[in-house]
Amino acid sequence: MTVKIINSSEAVVYLEQKLIVTNSSEFKEKIQSLFAEGYREITLDFSFSRWIDASGLGKICLLQKELKENQGELRIVNVNSSYIHNIFNIVQLHKVITIE
Predict the structure, then answer these.
(1) Quick one: DSSP state of residue 94?
(2) Structural domain tally of the chain?
(3) CATH, residue 27
(4) 34, 65, 72, 78: which sits with the fewest CB atoms below 10 Å from its CB?
């Protein structure tokens, strides 16, 4: 996973091909680290992602909750995988997180 700093409050996280149980804790730690450093607008870029499991989805929801409680925002962009797109639709993630 790669992070691009946009400005003093905004960062983009480029996710790997899979956000699953084996790497979701690392993902959570990375986002929490950005939050601790003062970043309140975090964008998850799914350009390269092809697969997500319940663990990855759970971490996204948990991080959204933490950011929202602290006047932050989590956004999702570039969902190119039809599998991930369908999962997001099934759980209606667009109702709690901006998906562009």
Answers:
(1) G
(2) 1
(3) 3.30.750.24
(4) 65
